[in-house]
Amino acid sequence: MIKIMAIANQKGGVGKTTTTVNLAASLAAIGQRVLLIDLDPQGNATMGSGIEKRDLEMTVYHVLLGKKTIAESRRTSVAGKYDVLPANRDLAGAEIELIEFLNRETRLRDAISKVSDEYDYVLIDCPPALNLLTLNGLCAAKSVMIPMQCEYYALEGLSDLVNTIRRVRASLNPVLEIEGLLRTMFDPRNTLAQQVSDQLQEHFGKKVYSTVIPRNVRLAEAPSYGVPVLYHDKASKGTQAYLALASELLSIAANSAKAA
Fold first, then answer.
1. Out of 3.10.180.10, 3.10.420.10, 3.40.50.300, 3.10.290.10, which CATH number does the structure's domain 3-259 have?
2. pTM above 0.85?
3. Element containing residue 190 per DSSP (H, E)
4. Using one digit for the tens of pLDDT, what is the confidence trace for 149-192?
């Protein structure tokens, strides 16, 4: 069964796009069919996948407005070996244009349903804001992965996002749940980071992934080469962490299937 996951956090700079790109590549590397959907007008996930956003004629913008389908608009990331529904600055105007549409919150969900049998995982990179684009991502997804740094302000932002997810589940997407909290840019030598990590595990328990993404120079470098870190430095700690996260997701999915 297809797994549609939004990677979301309204706080910027927490490793959300880094996670989307590198998780997509890691899942593809272990045999999963992956579609990455870039819902951020900055198009960083598109560029990080090795696709030049300035050259695009069709993007997620055209899909949301019903002008094109995903099958017509997607591109293959040669660098990452997964498919991408790309984004560029055109997407910035979509929010205003979508206001006139009926079912404006579920445009992406309807589009994904037409290609759902072609993928095992759909990863949606949401913009760092709780806007109509993020709402489309949350309505399309079955679960939400929340990347976050272990710092004080991250906890405050987390409560806002959790409340938003509850509201979306109550009114628009009853199957939406928190897939898990991912600790990113983690430095075990930082006492505050360790304290916040302990708090997360205390309050969210098994919803906190066992895998922790460390601070890693190779992770920061890879986007400038237009490749996921797996194909920039296979031996790096960042690569090993995202491969471990992909394996953890598959394990969680397998255990859920057995329980069902």
1. 3.40.50.300
2. yes
3. none
4. 888 777 777 888 889 999 999 999 999 999 999 999 998 888 88
